[in-house]
Amino acid sequence: MKHVVLLFKTLLLVGLLAYLVYAFTCINVRGGRERCNVLNVQIIDSLHASFITAADVDRKLRRAHLHPEGQLMDSVSGQDIENSLLRDPFIQKATCYKTPGGMVNILVEQRIPVLRVRADNGDDYYLDENGYRMKPTGYQADLVVVTGHVDEQYARKSLLPVGQYIRSDAFWDSQIEQINVTPQRELQLFTRIGDQTIHAGTPADFPQKLANLRLFYEKVMPEVGWNRYKDINISFANQIICKH
């Protein structure tokens, strides 16, 4: 009797193992034959910036012959897709993963430029919020343009905080369109409203200087008119000097 029970358990175990092998093989074969039918691209923070779009990602993958649609899921390399996308300087992070139903998902995190530098020495580049330099090829961003006597080290150390502050303030982000750096490393601001040159001195205490200027805009400009003054000097802590 014991031999019969042992034989039964052995046959049951063998049958179970055979089933597991069969099931695993069927799943792998089915998965290997499944083709990608959906490419889902999500751009992180796309509401605040659109330097990279889902259409851009689609085009990049087609040019690199890595577009997954129609390809066997087993042949789609998420690593190759990520590496290809990361060659774009405007892409900070790319994550690719596959999900059931033939879907390939790509999450893209953009680099967010805060300044466009067009220096007298011929340099032309974007700086992102972390000071990463990007070539301006293929993208147009509505940002503050920095001109004049500026090298990359000065731009990162002294002007990047200025650009970050402007970008964080909706009012000044919409108003200031150019910062010119003089040979003495002083800042001249040019706005979209008015025809003034605004002398801001060094980048030190920049938020306070703009707070003083905004108060001047709110209290004085409506009384005298936006084109009354040609030069406004906000270099000093507690006063604004204007010239006709």
How would you explain this protein's 3D organization?
The protein is of the alpha/beta class. It folds into 2 domains: 38-110, Ubiquitin-like (UB roll); 113-243, 3-Layer(aba) Sandwich (Rossmann fold), CATH 3.40.50. The protein is 37% helix and 27% strand. The protein is built from 7 helices and 12 strands. It has helices at 2-33, 54-63, 78-85, 152-168, 170-175, 206-219, 221-224, and strands at 38-44, 91-99, 103-110, 113-119, 124-128, 133-134, 144-148, 176-181, 187-191, 197-201, 231-233, 241-243. The chain has a 9-stranded mixed sheet with strand order 6-5-4-7-8-9-10-11-12. A 3-stranded mixed sheet has the order 1-3-2. The radius of gyration is 30 Å and the shape is elongated.
Low-pLDDT sequence parts = 1-14, 16-29
Residue share in helices? 25-40%
State the fourth-level CATH superfamily of the largest domain.
Answer: Cell division protein FtsQ/DivIB
Overall average pLDDT: 85
From the 3D structure, determine the CATH topology of the largest domain.
Answer: Rossmann fold
Number of strands: 12
Class based on secondary structure composition and strand pairing? alpha/beta
Number of domains: 2
Strand order of the largest sheet: 6-5-4-7-8-9-10-11-12
The DSSP helix count reads 7
Can you tell me the CATH architecture of the largest domain?
3-Layer(aba) Sandwich
Radius of gyration: 30 Å
Which CATH C-level class of the largest domain is it?
A: Alpha Beta
Q: What is the end-to-end distance?
A: 114 Å
H/E element sequence:
HEHHEEEEEEHHEEEHHEE
Biggest beta sheet attributes: 9 strands, mixed
